[in-house]
Design goal:
flat, mainly alpha
Length: 123
C-alpha cells in the first residue's frame, strides 16, 4: 500500500488539532469544578470538540497510507504542545525542552526513513 502526501498532511493537521485541544484543557482546568458548571466550561467543551474532529481526521488519514509510516507523526504533538504552551501560556523554554523536542524530531525522522525503506514511496 502506498502512502499519499494528503494522508501525511492530514496526520500533521490532526496533531495540531489535538495539541490545541490539550491547551484548551489546560485553560479549562483553571476553573474546573465537578458539578453542573462543568457544562459551562467552554475551554473543556472546545477541547473535547477538537479531539473528536482530530479523531475523525486521524481515521481518514489512515485510509491513505500505512500505519507504520503515518503513526510516528503523532509524536509531533509533543512539539506542538511545547510551542503552543510557550506562546499562549507563557511557559518557559529551557535546555531540557529544547533537547527533548530535538530528540522527538530526530526520532520521527529515523522512524520515517526506516519505514520508507520497508514501505513503498510516498506519493
Amino acid at each position: 500500500m502506498k502512502t499519499y502526501w494528503w494522508a501525511v498532511a492530514l496526520m500533521f493537521f490532526c496533531t495540531l488539532l489535538t495539541s490545541s485541544a490539550q491547551l484548551l484543557y489546560k485553560l479549562g482546568s483553571k476553573n474546573l469544578q465537578l458539578n453542573l458548571s462543568l457544562l459551562q466550561n467552554y475551554y473543556l467543551i472546545a477541547g473535547l470538540g477538537l479531539y473528536v474532529i482530530g479523531a475523525g481526521i486521524f481515521v481518514l488519514a489512515l485510509r491513505g497510507g500505512e500505519v507504520s509510516v503515518l503513526y510516528p507523526i503523532i509524536a509531533t504533538s509533543y512539539v506542538w504542545v511545547t510551542l503552543l504552551s510557550i506562546y499562549f501560556l507563557m511557559e518557559q523554554l529551557n535546555i531540557s525542552k529544547i533537547f527533548g523536542v530535538g530528540a522527538i524530531i530526530l526520532g520521527i525522522i529515523i522512524i520515517g526513513v526506516g519505514s520508507r525503506d520497508a514501505a513503498p514511496e510516498v506519493l
